[in-house]
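QA checklist item 7 of 12: single-chain prediction sanity check.
[x] sequence parsed
[x] length recorded as 571
[x] structure emitted
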Amino acid sequence: MDINLRVAALRQWMTAHQIGAFVVPTMDPHNSEYVPDRWKCREWISGFTGSAGTAVVTFDDARLWTDSRYWLQASEQLRETPFSLMREGEDTDINSWLKTWQKTNEGAVISFAADMMTPELYAELFASVEADASSEDPFNLLWENRPAMPLSPAEILTEEVAGESAACKLQRLIEWLNGEGASDHLLVAELSEVCWLLNLRGDDIPFNPYLIAFLEVRTSGHHSLYIYKEQVNEEVAQYLKELNVEVRPYEEGLELQKAAMKQEPVASPITFWRSIKNEAEQNGFREAHVRDGVAMVRFLCWLDHQDLSEGKITEITVDQVLTAFRAEQNGFKGLSFETIAAYGPHGAIVHYEATPETDVPLEPRSLLLLDSGGHFDCGTTDITRTIALGTLTEEEKRVYTLVLKGHLQLGHLHFPDGTTGLQLDTPARMAMWREGYDFGHGTGHGVGHRLGVHEGPCQIRKNLRGCTTIPFHAGQTMTDEPGIYVPGKFGVRIENTILSVEDRTTDFGHFLQFEQLTLCPYDLRPVILDMLTPEEKSWINAYHNRVCEVLSPLLATEEERTWLAEATKAI
């Protein structure tokens, strides 16, 4: 069925149910970053495959809103469909458009499927309009062979790995509800929070080790986990019983969320608690990055020994080979996000992902931007290295050096406890600002412990947002990833995962610094050494000495050890 027929079928269903406008966001009931196939209804109805966007269908109009990352892609994919592209930040926003539409069509109903909406998104989309969930999900009827619910088995994360028992976490939340929370219960819908609270993991969400479930925590001490019972084996059932957690049907949790749709979302403390990693979690991160570092070094050695003039190594090859090296490591649980292997001009596309249609061979010139990561049984990794493949232009070298300087300045910062992400952002940009360069994405995001690789609540970025005003404390895992992207030419990004740790206490306050968790050499071939300060050179040398010391004994061959020794040679 093509897009025109799908929209026509939806309009027929809307007529039968007396609905004037139907809103289809990119959403599951849990606000997941990666939406399971079952809930990719916006993609199904519009044909637009980007990861962010909201479609609105009326009797005589169809619109799709998405951000600037996807304007070009959306304009191409929406061609010859009923949908018009609405550019977020330039065109009328959804709420204003719906408000105008509702005034023009007095009495017409705006609706949506309840399982593709959260209270937070409801408040954002419908701030000044009336909208209600439909009595049924039209995609269950219209989408032939709609993907089934993912039903992976629940896995218990041992207290040794988690560092705190689920019983202690639940008691913390009960005490919060009895005090600041001022409520006798809390429905937890975000999957990372459900899994963190119960020390459970699963495989229901692409790249995220989550179970699809709701958790209702009550001050009475008797709680409910709304999940498909097929996912709970006898061991997990007994574990939950000991926590006073009753297993209930998933649909009951969905109904509870639907009932709370128009209520003010509760500001849960779980997100912040989860961001402060305990000693066991910190040690797990360290071990995960040792294993990941071995995989990265083995890959980089392999790549350096390939003859790129033959045109046989492509972006997709890079992804496949690096994934294979990671999979050989103990406790590997899968990728933490889709690998970005972007060669030459593709590197200027911030969230580029190679497809069979866009895949290009690497050549012995220019730069390869490689952003990747993995989940291990002890922690999660996220690393970017930009790699020189041969002859470079002066512009490529200069830009690379500016990005490296920014990365080093942020990573070696000493700062007072309570400093915000807005304040921490500036050191990463100072060198490039002096040269007239900048970048639009954030400089750092939180990283979950065997949870999502993108984790809140803190972020490091230049924009004044709620996430950039949250104070930093010891124990938070973040990324340090400045970049510069030259359209049509190349891109550079360098990223380590870092941990905020204690520095010292002086008469002027309590100070923190960052520990480098990532263990992998920087490519120094593009560096203009005269642009580095003596301090920056010493930072690189100290880091490379540690990388070589830790990883060399763990490598598989003498060739790999020789490569690492050369890559980490003092400058």
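[x] summary fact logged: Residues 3-142 form a domain with the Creatine Amidinohydrolase; Chain A, domain 1 fold (CATH 3.40.350.10).
[ ] second reviewer sign-off
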